[in-house]
């Protein structure tokens, strides 16, 4: 008998002592605030102390704040919560954390790592981007992922007891469970269902990778918590969208990586030789649009994976590109909802209740922008200053990110392929 209940997110348990905050007692004065839900009226003084947001009060010009060591003038500027990337892969810890942090991405959720032993080394470092991880993701022998990415044997679920496999992940430090619905060789529908059930039994969210319509059907049928990626072959039917919504499933479409694959001459050449289906961006965008319009929560994620493959979105920067793609007319999400999808919504869903909002008591993970991101989502790139856990980030990419880094036209994407990470 299968128990297909979607588990409720659990409270955060990092297993590590909280990092000791070192950031100075800071006040950002007279700033416009997007608090994780909406752009607040009036201007605000936001006080940071001991790594937390201490106070958020309506600005009163000239008022002295006792004990503040650093005063930052926020006049004409916009404060948003640190961004959350709901789909990364941690390869090199240093590259991952610095890449995320310098672009204001203060939390990265790893969706399948290659060395479970290092999971805890990548989280809770003072002043650095924080992470959570799925640990090893589930696949079967000879699947595309197993062959191309040389996934560890611990990922193989061919002949394992599903409860034992999930228990091993939990013991290894996994915060949620990741399954890969690969085609044509991958876990069967029965195997996916049993793994999702096993995750539910230990109150872990389950995330299923699906990149075409068939694997989307399988992922939906498994009743997993999160569908990740978007179909590159066919737009999913409205009936499936209705089921996704009814089952309270959420989607992390990673459009930035879908777009990159669909526009890569390299990928097209390989697909032609291997007779893989021809990848197209249109069904991915149309499917996300349909899910969003039906009320399915869409979270910002990028599938950044360092130099693991020839196509690689850049840590941190790709979050800004993903937000732009979600706002583009073919998907049509309003900037306010995209900002929620990169802050408060994933924080709540993944049980990270200490972040994602600008409210007293929350982690002082915040980004100061020179322009209004609600007016134009591309203003998320106009970074003035970043604090992580109250600590000013020394490598923040300030100023307008140059056009060649932000453009999503074909030649730019193609040039990214050959850029060292
Ligand atoms: Zn991935």
UniProtKB/TrEMBL annotation:
InterPro entries attached to this UniProt entry: Amidohydro-rel, Metal-dep_hydrolase_composite, Metal_Hydrolase, Metallo-dep_Hydrolase
Residue spans crossing the bilayer: none
Organism annotation: Physocladia obscura
Official protein name in the record: Amidohydrolase-related domain-containing protein
A Gene Ontology molecular function term of the record: hydrolase activity, acting on carbon-nitrogen (but not peptide) bonds
Pfam family, one: Amidohydro_1
Top-level division of the source organism's lineage: Eukaryota
Organism ancestry: Eukaryota, Fungi, Fungi incertae sedis, Chytridiomycota, Chytridiomycota incertae sedis
Classification via SUPFAM superfamilies: Composite domain of metallo-dependent hydrolases (SSF51338), Metallo-dependent hydrolases (SSF51556)
Domain Amidohydrolase-related: 78-390
């Amino acid at each position: 008998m299968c128990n297909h209940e979607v588990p409720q997110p659990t409270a955060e348990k990092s297993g590590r002592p909280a990092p000791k905050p070192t950031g100075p007692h800071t006040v950002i004065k007279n700033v416009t605030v997007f608090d994780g839900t909406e752009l607040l009226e009036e201007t605000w003084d936001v006080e940071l102390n001991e790594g937390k947001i201490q106070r958020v009060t309506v600005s009163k010009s000239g008022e002295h704040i006792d004990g503040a060591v650093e005063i930052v003038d926020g006049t004409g500027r916009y404060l948003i919560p640190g961004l959350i990337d709901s789909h990364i892969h941690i390869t090199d810890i240093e590259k991952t954390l610095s890449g995320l942090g310098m672009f204001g991405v203060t939390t990265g959720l790893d969706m399948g790592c290659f060395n479970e032993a290092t999971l805890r080394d990548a989280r809770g470092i003072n002043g650095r981007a924080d992470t959570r991880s799925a640990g090893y993701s589930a696949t079967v022998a000879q699947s595309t992922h197993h062959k191309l990415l040389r996934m560890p044997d611990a990922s193989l679920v061919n002949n394992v007891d599903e409860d034992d496999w999930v228990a091993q992940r939990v013991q290894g430090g996994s915060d949620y469970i990741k399954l890969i619905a690969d085609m044509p060789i991958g876990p069967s529908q029965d195997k996916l269902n049993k793994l999702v059930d096993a995750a539910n039994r230990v109150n872990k969210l389950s995330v299923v990778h699906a990149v075409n319509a068939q694997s989307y059907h399988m992922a939906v049928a498994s009743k997993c918590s999160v569908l990740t990626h978007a179909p590159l072959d066919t737009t999913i039917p409205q009936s499936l969208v209705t089921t996704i919504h009814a089952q309270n499933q959420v989607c992390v479409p990673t459009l930035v990586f879908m777009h990159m694959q669909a526009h890569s001459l390299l990928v097209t050449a390989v697909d032609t030789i291997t007779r893989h289906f021809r990848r197209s961006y249109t069904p991915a965008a149309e499917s996300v649009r349909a899910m969003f319009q039906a009320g399915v929560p869409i979270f910002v994620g990028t599938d950044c994976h360092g130099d693991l493959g020839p196509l690689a979105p850049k840590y941190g920067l790709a979050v800004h590109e993903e937000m732009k793609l979600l706002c583009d007319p073919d998907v049509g999400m309003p900037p306010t909802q995209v900002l929620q999808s990169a802050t408060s919504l994933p924080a709540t869903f993944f049980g990270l209740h200490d972040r994602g909002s600008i409210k007293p008591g929350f982690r002082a993970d915040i980004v100061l922008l020179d322009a209004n991101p609600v007016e134009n989502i591309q203003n998320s790139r106009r970074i003035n200053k970043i604090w992580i856990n109250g600590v000013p980030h020394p490598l923040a990419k300030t100023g307008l990110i140059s056009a060649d880094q932000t453009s999503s036209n074909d030649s730019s994407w193609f040039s990214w392929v050959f850029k060292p990470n």
